[in-house]
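hi! just following up on the protien thing from before. the input was this:
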Amino acid sequence: MEQPVIFKSGLNSLVGIYHHHNVSCSTGVLIVVGGPQYRVGSHRQFVIMARRLSQQGIPVFRFDYKGMGDSEGSVSSFEGIQDDIKSAIDTFFLLSGGMKRVVIWGLCDGASAACLYGHKDKRVGGLILVNPWVTMGSSKAKTYIKYYYFRQLLEMDFWRRLLSGDVNIKKSLKEFANTIKISLTPAKQAKRGEVSKERGLQERMLMGIKAFNGDVLTVVSGQDLTAAEFNDLLNTNAQWRSVFEQKNLSRVDFPSADHTFSQRSWLNDMSDVTAQWVRAE
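and the predicted 3d structure came back as:
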């Protein structure tokens, strides 16, 4: 069963969908999407996953936060949706009488928002972080150099396009040079004593995970630059690595999957991993 819901967050009316089944489950899943999304194509995943989970007896609530989709309000970044998440959880509990706790499932910067919010609400029993967004301008550039540009050189399709004239060499070289320049920016900033807002975000996310008392599942795709940047952060930052090696944090990798699990087999497997983990909560 799917029930459309309009609820308030401050002065804004937000739109959500409550997915539920006759079988009761004490843990529900709140889906926090990453950035502005369509509900077609690869981003249909949110609808499909919600239906698959509810068919297995797990209640699900997905919603458009302010300024997004069908909801009111000015467009906000994931850092400004804390009140929306709280209001969505309030509504979720009102709709699902037998629910005792909620797991926040977040993709990309939705996962980042979950890190910032989870420890503030005792009703949140778990977090599922899917390809978390930890992007800084420099680290993103380094990721592109390491995983995109070099990979292109190894692909026959790139050389075919190059030889056929489909690749604008001048434009590509200019973009590559700019990417290298951006990758070197933090060193220059450090010399000037500038504080990076993006690094501050990483620190707040890490503090949020440290302060969270529940369990955390990290889901990582193997064919995704956002996931690659997250992996690099774990490999190069001892603090992040130590936190994500704690007993209450677990991880599942999908080596063949892209950022949005755009193939149905990937999405079904990821949804089933989510269901199994939620039932174990």
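Residues 138-191 form one domain.
Residues 179-183, 187-195 have pLDDT under 50 and may be disordered.
cheers
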